């Protein structure tokens, strides 16, 4: 029969040091993961403490586990009601959010940004929009007709301030909310009328 684990105060000096070091490392690693996945405004004040560790293990905003950060595009999820009214449900933009909201939502924004990639969109795009169909109908009622994800592509300029890419908006995936959870329609890329201009670099 195995003996129950000893309390910290019951350990010898060497064992206390080992347990204390392991506990400290675990806490450091958890905080580093949270800091590494957030924005520069939060990472900058603690860069000396976490930067080398985060970059060494690729726990930064460019870490590919949940997708690349939306630095030049934004993905918007909108619900459209029967009368044509559009309601913004979710966005990868974070420029007007508090630091707490940015930290809280960093993973879901990265996941949503993956809708710009064909393989991911085909694999789980319809299920993702199905969730937002249920969410929108629960909040706004049965008049919610469709939910769609669109990509807002920013205008980019070179060092000479010459436009290298014009701003535009394109449809990624749309879903008929009235048709039920098994009938997601994956729409091909197409440019929507009227480009949406967003200040370059704004998140």
Helix content: 25-40%
Query: Spatial order of the strands in the main sheet?
Result: 2-1-3-6-7
Can you count the beta strands? 7
Could you say how many structural domains there are in total?
2
Order of helices and strands: HHHEEHHEEEEE
Main sheet? 5 strands, antiparallel
Describe the structure.
This protein has 203 residues and is α+β, with helices and mostly antiparallel strands. The protein has two domains: 8-56, no CATH class; 73-191, no CATH class. 37% of the residues lie in helices and 20% in strands. It has helices at residues 13-36, 40-43, 47-56, 99-113, 118-140, and strands at residues 73-81, 86-91, 144-153, 156-157, 163-165, 168-176, 190-191. Strands 2-1-3-6-7 form a five-stranded antiparallel β-sheet, with helices on one face. Strand 1 (73-81) and strand 2 (86-91) form a beta hairpin. Helix 1 (13-36) packs across helix 3 (47-56). The radius of gyration is 22 Å and the shape is extended. It starts with 12 loop residues before the first helix and ends in a 12-residue tail after the last strand. Mean pLDDT is 76; it is low at 62-70 and 183-203.
What is the secondary structure topology, with strand pairs?
Blueprint: H1 13-36, H2 40-43, H3 47-56, E1 73-81, E2 86-91, H4 99-113, H5 118-140, E3 144-153, E4 156-157, E5 163-165, E6 168-176, E7 190-191
Antiparallel strand pairs: 1-2, 1-3, 3-6, 4-5, 6-7
Helix pairs in contact: 1-3
């Amino acid at each position: 029969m195995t003996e129950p684990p000893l309390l910290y105060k019951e350990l010898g000096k060497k064992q206390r040091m080992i347990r204390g070091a392991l506990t400290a490392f675990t806490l450091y690693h958890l905080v580093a993961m949270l800091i590494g996945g957030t924005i520069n405004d939060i990472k900058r004040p603690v860069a000396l403490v976490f930067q080398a560790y985060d970059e060494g293990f690729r726990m930064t905003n460019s870490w590919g586990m949940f997708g690349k950060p939306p630095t030049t595009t934004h993905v918007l999820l909108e619900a459209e009601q029967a009368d044509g009214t559009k309601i913004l449900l979710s966005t990868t933009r974070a420029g007007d959010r508090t630091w707490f909201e940015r930290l809280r939502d960093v993973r879901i924004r990265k996941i949503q940004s993956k809708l710009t990639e064909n393989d991911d969109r085909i694999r789980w795009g319809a299920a993702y929009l199905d969730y937002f169909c249920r969410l929108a109908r629960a909040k706004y009622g049965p008049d919610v007709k469709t939910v769609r994800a669109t990509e807002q592509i920013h205008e980019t300029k070179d060092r000479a301030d010459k436009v290298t890419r014009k701003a535009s908006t394109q449809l990624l995936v749309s879903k008929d909310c009235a048709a039920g959870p098994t009938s997601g329609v994956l729409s091909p890329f197409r440019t929507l009328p009227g480009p949406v201009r967003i200040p370059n670099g704004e998140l």
